[in-house]
Amino acid sequence: MTDISKQDWNVPAKEDSPHEGGFRADLQVTTERGGPTYGDMIEQVRSFMDKVRYASPTHALADEVIEDLVKLNAKLDTMLVDEWTSPSGTRIDLPSRGNITLPPYEISAGGPDSVDATVTFRRFHLGGNGVAHGGHVAVAFDDLGGMAAALKIGGVSRTAYLTVNYRSLTPLETALSLRTWVERRDGRKLFVKGTLHDGDRLCADMDALFIELKPGQA
């Protein structure tokens, strides 16, 4: 590991903390963290997750994969950093900012009026019968709804509630259109809407409330 211990991974913000909203880095945008092939590494991890979702390994193969993963985890242990300096979630040049916890998406347009993205749910996101799990759909709405709120106010917000209406099945491995926007604002309350389409077909829509954070608020 680096000189940052596991106990230091989640340091709460203080009044003089540079971490906006108590959880966001100080907005020093960079595409260099993790190096030029970080995106390729993320893609390989995503592919591995896809294959694990469908694989039925033999006992011997499972043991072999475990041995390889132990070695890889040991290598990553030597390069762990804290939340604020990790490239995951901050690499704006990569799908979903390089965050493997999110379905990969690409932003086509974004501003104070709306955010438009193309999102693809992969095999890892399987729910059943060949379509995406509703929880992964909600995660995509949550992230891009928060982005719409952030661009509207030029600051950070937290999700207060998020309701997803599943209108039809959401296919896997298909480029889908996801749009989020702030419908209205009431003080620190941001009422956010969203839609997910497969062509002209509405897969799901979102109704959410985000709360603008005060300076230093977690």
Range of strand content: 25-35%
The number of helical runs is 3
Strand order of the largest sheet: 1-2-6-7-8-5
Task: Give the averaged pLDDT, no decimals.
Answer: 89
* 3D shape: globular
Biggest β-sheet, characterized? 6 strands, antiparallel
How many angstroms separate the termini? Answer: 27 Å
Determine the structural class based on helices, strands and strand pairing. Answer: alpha+beta
Q: Which radius of gyration do the C-alpha atoms yield? A: 19 Å
Helix content: 25-40%
List low-confidence stretches: 1-14
The sequence of SSEs as H and E is HHEEEEHEEEE
| Number of E strands | 8
Tell me the layout of helices and strands.
Layout: H1 38-54, H2 59-77, E1 105-110, E2 115-119, E3 126-128, E4 131-132, H3 134-153, E5 157-166, E6 176-186, E7 189-198, E8 201-212
Antiparallel strand pairs: 1-2, 2-6, 3-4, 5-8, 6-7, 7-8
